[in-house]
Every structure is written in C-alpha cells, then in structure tokens.
Amino acid sequence: MKILIVGAGGFIGGHLLEEILKNHRNWHVIAIDINADKISHLLADENINFFKIDILQDSIEKHVRDCDVVLPLAAIASPAVYVTDPLRVFELDFEANLQIIKWAVKYEKRVIFPSTSEVYGMCEDEEFREDESNCVTGPVCKQRWIYSCSKQMLDRVIYAHGLKNNLNYTLFRPFNWIGPKLDDISNSDNGSSRVVTQFLSNIVHEKDIKLVGGGNQIRSFTDVSDAIGALIKIIKNENNCATRQIFNIGNPNNQASIKNLAHEILDLAKKYDRLKSLAEKIKIVEINPHEYYGKGYQDVAYRVPSIERAEALLQWKPKVPLKESLQKIMDSLFKTTSK
Ligand SMILES: NC(=O)c1ccc[n+]([C@@H]2O[C@H](COP(=O)([O-])OP(=O)(O)OC[C@H]3O[C@@H](n4cnc5c(N)ncnc54)[C@H](O)[C@@H]3O)[C@@H](O)[C@H]2O)c1
Asked: In the chain, what are the domains?
C-alpha cells in the first residue's frame, strides 16, 4: 500500500510514520510537509519519500494520483490562531484540504480525513455520538469557530462525495490526543500551543499557569500510542470495517478538568530534577478568556466521546491512563532521574 501523508512532520504524522516504518514494512509512505524537524530521524528509511512542499503554494496532484490512500493531516489546530488569523485557518484547513479531496475523488483514491472533536462545539450531550450529536457553534463574531466550521464543512463535503461519487473515506475525530512531540515547548506565549505543552512551557519559563475561565472545562485526553493504534486499524480497513464511517477516537476514561490537569502536571513536575525548583515557584491562576485569547473566543465546557463505534467496528479500546501519558511526555522532555 502506498500512503500519502500530508502534514507528515506534525504531531500525529510523526507518530504515525514511526509506527508504519517500525511495524508495517510492506507499506510505502509519501510524506509531505513544510517542516521535517520532528521526523528527520526517519527520512533515511527506504520506505519513505519525503517532499518539502507548501500545499498553499504548490500542487500535490501527482502525489495524490500516485498513492492508494491519502491522509491530509496538514492544518492549523491552535485556538490562538483561530482568533488572531481566522482566514489563515480557512485557507489551509478548508481550502487547501478541499483541493486534496477533489483530487482524491478525481483519481478514485481512499481518503482518511482528520475531523475534530471541535465539530461538536457546544453540544450538550453527555457523550458525543458520530451520527446523533448536533454540531453547535457560536455567532460569527466569535471567530474561534472557523476551525470547527472548516472541518465540519469538509466532513460534509467528503460525506456527500461518498454518496454521489462513491468516494471511499473514513473520518476520524481526535479528542485531545497527547504525547511526546505535541508542540514546541520553547514558546510560552499565551495560547501558542496545545494545553499540555502550554502548561509545561509555562513551568520551564517560570510563568504562572493560567486557567482560562477558571479551568473547569472537561476534556478527554487520549494517549497518542492508543490513537495511532486506531489509525492503523483504519488504514488496514479489514473487511471494509472503516469504509464510509466516522469514528470518535478518544478516551472517555481520561476525563479531566483543565484545572485538574494543571495540578497533575505541576505535581509531576516536582518529581523531575530539572523542573522541581521551578515548579515549586509556579502558581496556578485564573484568567478571563477574553483577556487570554481576545474577544473572538468562546469556550467549550464539556467534551467527552462515545467510542462505541470504534470499539465495535475497529475492535479498538484505548488503554493508557492520563497520568501515565503525562509521565511519558515529561520523560521525553526532561529525562527523569527520580520518580
Ligand atoms: N492532535 C489532536 O489532538 C487533534 C485534534 C483534533 C484534530 N486534529 C487534526 O489532526 C490533524 C493533524 O494534527 P496534528 O496534531 O498532527 O497537527 P500539527 O500542527 O502537529 O501538524 C500539522 C502539520 O502540517 C504541516 N503544515 C502546515 N501548513 C502546511 C502547508 N502549507 N503545507 C504543508 N504542510 C503544512 C505543519 O508543518 C505540521 O507539521 C490536523 O488536521 C488537526 O486539525 C488533531
């Protein structure tokens, strides 16, 4: 199988590449990204061809034509950018990805597309279900919803191509996948990275941890090793189990409020020699969402997936508890000497 991964140098792409090159030696990967820093150690492998291409500038039509399955993972997935530069989010997350979908339709290729838990928005269901829960977003002046809407619109376009043109697709919805190499820890500006990296970089840079709106928001954190296990099953697609399906890929057992997450990370940090003295000085403080992200922000109080479908069709179940996941991330960054 020839797999085209666009955005292969990112968090998910990098972990997926590692797994494919280690355990699926009969698969060949065409990897595309503007940045290969996180995957440079993999590029000498004969099972991968890397192309440094900016998909906003250059066509990748021939790569779509030449593969069997395409995973268009390139996107901006950072709430701070949804608010400060919504058009950039639209151009990459929607327009550039739409073009890839059109080529996949033209050349009859299989598409595995990363939707997002964000499409459920402010849905009040206790557990979000792929075919039942509503997608609830806020007013246009809350531009943070441009990410959710861009992804939702692509979900709908892909679904429609499935109906009309028989497009062979799978949509997967990650719920806060976390693991080593999530984001760059060197930048500690407000909202510069996803929450786990943000809190760690606050500690490293001796800045207080800020709980946006009090930190009572609930999220379900999913260890990237579990998540990649689901993705591999989707790629394999045994007996067409993933064909024209939407899957929530999350860990409902790893629910935590952002406030609890902050305390968990700070407590863990005290066990690492490099962080101990820093962590003892850090305070956890509350901050108004508009002060932190700007007026275009609106929050999601609660986000827990139903994973019944992934359990039934993919025979997949996440295993790694949140604490273990956090430890793995911190070990990868700070090489613990005492636990
Ligand atoms: N990580 C999560 O928990 C999560 C949650 C929901 C949805 N997703 C979706 O999964 C996908 C992958 O997420 P991720 O966490 O790996 O993101 P990431 O930001 O780590 O990776 C995205 C990659 O795309 C590349 N890229 C950006 N602009 C590009 C361009 N113009 N041309 C070529 N490459 C470009 C980046 O260099 C980066 O390596 C995204 O579509 C994201 O929206 C992820």
From this structure: 2-180+222-252+303-319 (3.40.50.720)
First to last CA, the chain: 42
The pLDDT value given to residue 148: 97
Q: Is 216 helix (H, G, I), strand (E, B) or coil?
A: coil
Q: Which tens digit of pLDDT belongs to each residue from 64-76?
A: 999 999 999 999 9
Q: How many Å is the Cα radius of gyration of the chain?
A: 19
Q: Nearest to residue 248, comparing CAs of 119, 79, 158, 71? A: 119
Q: Is the CB of 250 under 6 A from ligand 1?
A: no
C-beta contacts of 204-208 below 8 A and 24+ residues apart = 204/275, 204/278, 206/278, 206/281, 206/282, 207/282, 208/282, 208/283, 208/284, 208/285
CB of 94 shorter than 6 A to ligand 1: no
More confident residue, 145 or 299: 145
Contact 35, 9 (CB under 8 A): yes
Q: pLDDT digits over 53-99, tens only?
A: 999 999 999 999 999 999 999 999 988 899 999 999 999 999 999 99
Q: Best mutation site among 4, 6, 33 for ligand 1, i.e. most ligand atoms within 8 A of its Cβ? A: 33
pLDDT at 336: 53
Residue 122's closest CA among 154, 90, 147, 145?
145
Quote the ligand 1 centre to 11 CA distance (angstroms): 7
> Is residue 10 within 6 Å of ligand 1 at its C-beta?
yes
For ligand 1, whether the C-beta of 33 sits within 6 Å is: yes
